[in-house]
Amino acid sequence: MSGKPRLTYCNGRGRMEPIRWLLAAAGVEFEEIFLETREQYEKLIKDGVLMFQQVPLVEIDGMKMVQTRAILSYIAGKYNLYGKDLKERALIDMYVEGITDLMQMILMFPFSPPEAKEKNLDSIKERATNRYFPVFEKVLKQHGQDFLVGNKFSWADVQLIEAILAVEEKIPAVLSGFPQLQAFKIRMSNMPTIKKFLQPGSPRKPPPDECYRETVLKIFRK
């Protein structure tokens, strides 16, 4: 095995996508193993690889890491994307947790029954424009800096640009009332590591389709 982190998950976004984003933003190349069958997943459990019988699984620095938040925290700390002190780390944590709440709605959207999709889409738009995006618009406007915390690129910036692009896929005009976030999106999208990740052929996964939905249900639904 090479020294690259190795990621095990389905061939789609899900809970692994923020991990892919953070590694890519840090300029770290990684390898991926894609689960395609229930048997592959059960073998990982039987072999004792998954501490809580859940993926994502990231093998890094001799560890077999599970739990998305723990993995992201480790990567952020390892690659100096987690602030300069405890106060900055606390701010990053708060911002990340808020964005994660919004992204949870995006994550579950493909699994909504057809009759609930319009209502769920309205909920995503309402939460994004009234609860979450106003927070970051205000932060960027008040301190007048390029990044969310300490005027330095951090995990929080990566999570936010991922969320902005994910919401825009469903609601293209969602940033129309947020000029600071519009400028932030342009800045982040032009950072070399992120720009590379946004190019065709990168490890970034496309929006979930019916094939991805069926694969997830086949593997994880008992």
Give the low-confidence spans: none
- The number of strands is 4
End-to-end separation in angstroms reads 32 Å
**Basic shape:** globular
Architecture of the largest domain in CATH? Up-down Bundle
Q: C-alpha Rg, in Å?
A: 18 Å
| Structure classification | alpha+beta
Beta-strand content = 5-15%
How much helix is in the residues? 55-70%
CATH topology of the largest domain: Glutathione S-transferase Yfyf (Class Pi), Chain A, domain 2
Q: Biggest sheet, strands in spatial order?
A: 2-1-3-4
Number of helical runs? Answer: 9
Per CATH, the class of the largest domain reads Mainly Alpha
Give helix and strand order, one letter per element, not per position.
EHEHEEHHHHHHH
How confident overall, as mean pLDDT? 94
Count of separate structural domains:
2
- Major sheet size, sense and barrel closure: 4 strands, mixed
GO molecular function, one term: glutathione transferase activity
Domain GST C-terminal: 85-209
EC number: 2.5.1.18
Domain GST N-terminal: 3-83
Features:
single chain, 222 residues, alpha+beta, Glutaredoxin, Glutathione S-transferase Yfyf (Class Pi), Chain A, domain 2, 2 domains, 4-stranded mixed beta sheet, 9 helices
Write up what this structure looks like.
- It is an enzyme of class 2 (transferase).
- Residues 85-209 form the GST C-terminal domain.
- Keywords: Transferase.
- Pfam families: GST_C_3, GST_N.
- The protein has 222 residues and is α+β, with helices and mostly antiparallel strands.
- The protein has two domains: 6-79 and 198-220, Glutaredoxin; 86-190, Glutathione S-transferase Yfyf (Class Pi), Chain A, domain 2, CATH 1.20.1050.10.
- It has nine helices and four strands, in the order βαβαββααααααα.
- A four-stranded mixed sheet has the order 2-1-3-4, covered by helices on one side.
- Strand 1 (6-9), helix 1 (17-25) and strand 2 (31-34) form a beta-alpha-beta unit.
- Helix 4 (86-108) packs antiparallel against helix 5 (117-143).
- The two termini are 32 Å apart.
- The relative contact order is 0.16.
